[in-house]
Design goal:
The structure is a homodimer of 356-residue chains. By secondary structure, chain A is of the alpha/beta class. Chain A has 2 domains: 226 residues, P-loop containing nucleotide triphosphate hydrolases (Rossmann fold); 54 residues, Helix Hairpins, CATH 1.10.287. The first copy, chain A, is 52% helix and 10% strand. In chain A, strands 3-2-4-1-5-6-7 form a 7-stranded parallel beta sheet, sandwiched between helices. In chain A, strand 5, helix 11 and strand 6 form a beta-alpha-beta unit. The longest helix of chain A is centred in the C-terminal third of the chain and has 27 residues. Chain A starts with a helix and ends with a helix. Chains A and B meet through helix 5, helix 9, helix 14, helix 15 and helix 16 of A and helix 5, helix 9, helix 14, helix 15 and helix 16 of B. Chains A, B: It comes from Snuella lapsa.
């Protein structure tokens, strides 16, 4: 719960507005707010980079109403030919590491270079509170006002899988709306990093310098997923600590075998607050894109991710359909008790349940 | 393939013989070799610690013949009340690390302490050659001859899941045959370590001292699964290297958060060839058993493992049943191509396939 309060992405419900907004389209959308939205108009507006239309479209994706689901599917299909042209960056880090400040400074750096930046979030914990916490609007203030940026709070949903699907569909819409860089923030709860990792091109781990125990308590597998580790707040008195942390993390990265991308992850220092080291992060990402475009890993990874999500979605639904059957629910508990009492094996119990 | 040739567990097809062997039972078994084995007799012989009967029972488990499968299930069910009383130890390490020598010395150490030791193996690569390579019988010579030891080569099967099931069922039979310690060797191919890890109480990683780059090339996740790292061949000129390797591995272990078992994995040196440091390994395992019995983790882990295998088996079968449907096979390829051409999303494609 504490994590939700510190995540900037719950604060601003798509508040950024583009100047080239289509006034007629907005009027049109508003008049139909409580009725069925016109899909064609919405797609046209998204392609015209209308961020209000984009926001409404994402809301449609998030809806559970059957007619909305149908409309959302049509919408995504219409946007698909315009998607896939962005760079997708995942950013993770524990609360307090300065994710909001980093994303704001990094985002402003990109928009100053003429890039259009969308920020999405995956936060399974927010699904529990149904996104009810809105919080203050002071975080990412400059990026919120930036007409080349779009910030969308975490999708709500019943499961991480559901949230993941919505986020992944939102990426398609953002890409159709002409965003060049999509940043996906995760608050690091549960399996959220793995989920984000499986939908981005580049995965960045944001860290703080500590008192020499930087590596303690890092969630399993996070370091080996990272394409870059950026140590934030590396300024003033902490700079020396940050330099030591850099050495420790570099050694930790060294423990892992070479990545399939042929990319060697690096550790860099930055101070998002003082806008130091941000350009180096972007240069690193640009290098990564260049190398992985050259060796075709960039495209292969996206295809792998597509296949992963296809198989994953099917398996999750087969499993959920099976284990939600009332007869299975009842018998599963009985079989577990029988296993515990040495009356059956997990395999025999599985055969029994599958034959019900 | 090279791994098979160096794994001792392909060499000895249950050749160890117990002195308290039931002569009548053997005669009985031999006479019925080509017909149906009598399940009751087999169970009785296993409970009498007859290792020839145990070998025949494991062969039944490995059979794909429907009548054998039925008999095997009856057999396992009859043995279950006598199972679960052993300590299950997983041992992994790359070829050349001296696994056979270690298991032989370690096994002899245990039998000298009055323990009865069974050695099984998980080797997915052997399933490809259907266990046709038998090799020489010179490895683990002393353990093979030891009447308190039982060595069984890797089960063959079409999939790691299949091999895993057979190994796990073999554990039950070995336990019913009164073995106190079950050692499960893995040759470290594919996902075999994870599979072994999910069926043992204690997981031991065997390593060699190198030229300071010990940590390079270690398969992802292996170190964090280890309850102990034992550096073998720590003698003579290599001792100094081994001591440095010990420091490096201790630091690497330090990177991971505290285990749910409350056990802190340790790094120790040994020379299996010179029988040095072997007692320390067993003392460590005994400490582990004491700690995790006290905090109930030992029992909880076994229950977790049972639940894991139950769910895992069901999910694998649901998935394999779905993806082996001829219509799905055909449409899956088409949908993957549509995704690649930006004509659909993985989620829409999944919905489509599930509705076929």
């Amino acid at each position: 719960m504490a994590k939700e309060k510190t995540s900037a992405l719950h604060k601003n419900k798509g508040a950024s507005q583009s100047e080239d907004m289509n006034a007629r389209a907005i009027k049109n959308i508003r008049s139909k707010r409580n009725t069925q939205l016109n899909t064609k108009t919405l797609v046209a507006s998204i392609l015209k980079r209308d961020t209000v239309a984009l926001s409404r479209a994402i809301t449609l994706i998030e809806s559970k109403h059957p007619s909305h689901i149908k409309q959302a599917n049509t919408l995504i299909e219409a946007c698909l030919p315009y998607a896939n042209q962005s760079i997708r960056i995942g950013i993770t880090g524990v609360p307090g590491v300065g994710k909001s400040t980093f994303i704001e400074t990094f985002g402003k750096h990109l928009t100053s270079k003429g890039k259009r930046v969308a920020v999405l979030a995956i936060d399974p914990s927010s699904s529990l509170s149904k996104g009810s916490i809105l919080g203050d609007k002071t975080r990412m203030e400059a990026l919120v006002k930036d007409e080349h940026a779009f910030i969308r709070p975490s999708a709500s949903g019943d499961s991480l899988g559901g949230v993941a699907r919505k986020t992944r569909e939102s990426i398609i819409l953002c890409e159709a709306a002409g965003f060049d860089v999509i940043i996906i923030e995760t608050v690091g709860v549960g399996q959220s990093e793995t989920t984000v990792h499986s939908m981005v091109d580049f995965f960045l781990l944001l860290k703080l310098a500590g008192a020499g125990d930087e590596l303690q308590g890092i969630k399993r597998g996070i370091i080996e997923m990272a394409d870059a580790i950026v140590i934030n707040k590396a300024d003033g008195d902490i700079l020396k600590h940050a330099q030591l942390a850099k050495i420790a993390f570099s050694k930790a990265l060294h423990l892992y075998p070479k990545k399939a991308s042929q990319w060697t992850p690096k550790v860099t220092l930055c101070s998002a607050l003082h806008n130091e080291g941000i350009d180096a992060v972007w240069n690193q990402i640009s290098d990564y894109i260049a190398i992985t475009s050259e060796n075709n890993y960039f495209k292969e990874k996206r295809q792998e991710q597509n296949k992963f999500w296809l198989i994953q979605t099917i398996e999750a639904q087969l499993s959920s359909h099976f284990f939600n059957r009332p007869d299975i629910k009842k018998e599963l508990q009985k079989q577990l008790e029988r296993i515990e009492a040495n009356k059956t094996t997990p395999f025999a119990a599985a055969d029994y349940l599958l034959n019900l």
